[in-house]
């Protein structure tokens, strides 16, 4: 393994990758701290998988520099990088049992058989499959196969563990369980992990940091809370959860706070360097109070009202277009075609500094 030199596990310095005339990623700059789980999130074709493959050495950069564990690996082959990848397809050998699959990578080294066995058994214990060593992959559930793939990567004790859409082959209920297992394992072992997904909820659930990508560049990076509560662009607001894009008017600002009017509603929000005048706001569906039309606020008409057990979903026509609203309190159910008034809660509303 590489010698530790600082707290930086992975660093991209102005990295670009072109396939012919198509720029897959452009000018990427970021740092991944040791022991953190960082998710590359974005729509299909945004460049997230290419970025993961650049870390792994499965693709080589066109321009820029990549450092892992303090070492320049820009021109280092995949086999000589201290990383392991868990693929979307798991890529288990069907004719090998679980133990053989997990120990396969170590058998390619000159390690003693007794040491290989000890490491493989330990890896299976970590992922909770110590009793499954003699089973074939076909005898396991999808979640168990995923854990075998994780154990096979862990046994190599990599500097960085890479996940490429690891849960996409699992059903929704199993995805929730396995993603929590991956997160708990990552935190317990303090593994530096880079995780690729297009699933926003998955990214919010497992990540220390999220790098949102769009059209080959980084749209925004930060903690899950930062990205959800303070999106810096309309794209991020729309992509990280649902958002109503609302027009407001900034009247003044003092220090970090701005006074904003949205219809008859007055707000004070961090101004984020935006100039006075017309602005755009990101309003999360849960950040809207819905009341009957006798109250003061933004008038609207209910187009759709859907009961979903834990909450009520509304589509509401306003003078700013249709709003999507979630009501978790459900003190009053508003029927379709009824007139309502909308107000904002204390959190979930933020200025969008960039269009």
Which helices and strands, and how do they pair?
Layout: E1 8-19, E2 22-33, E3 37-41, H1 48-56, E4 63-68, E5 71-72, E6 83-86, H2 98-107, H3 113-126, H4 142-154, E7 160-164, H5 172-189, E8 193-197, H6 200-206, E9 209-214, E10 217-222, H7 224-229, H8 234-239, E11 244-254, E12 257-262, E13 265-270, E14 277-283, E15 288-292, E16 298-307, E17 312-318, E18 321-327, E19 339-344, E20 349-351
Parallel strand pairs: 3-8, 3-9, 6-7, 7-8
Antiparallel strand pairs: 1-2, 1-4, 4-5, 9-10, 11-12, 11-14, 12-13, 14-20, 15-19, 16-17, 16-19, 17-18
Helix pairs in contact: 2-3, 2-4, 3-4
Q: In angstroms, what is the radius of gyration?
A: 24 Å
Secondary-structure class: alpha+beta
Q: How are strands sequenced across the largest beta sheet?
A: 6-7-8-3-9-10
Helix share bin: 10-25%
Instruction: Categorize the overall geometry.
Output: globular
Low-confidence runs (pLDDT<50, min 5 residues)? Answer: 1-5
**What's the mean pLDDT score?**
91
Determine the N-to-C terminus distance: 44 Å
Total beta-strand segments: 20
N-to-C SSE string, H for helix and E for strand = EEEHEEEHHHEHEHEEHHEEEEEEEEEE
Strand content: 35-45%
Largest sheet: 6 strands, mixed
The total of helices stands at 8
Structure overview:
The chain contains eight helices and 20 strands. By secondary structure, the chain is α+β, with helices and mostly antiparallel strands. Strands 6-7-8-3-9-10 form a six-stranded mixed beta sheet, with helices on both faces. A five-stranded antiparallel beta sheet has the order 13-12-11-14-20. Strands 15-19-16-17-18 form a five-stranded antiparallel beta sheet, with no helix packed on it. β17 and β18 form a beta hairpin.
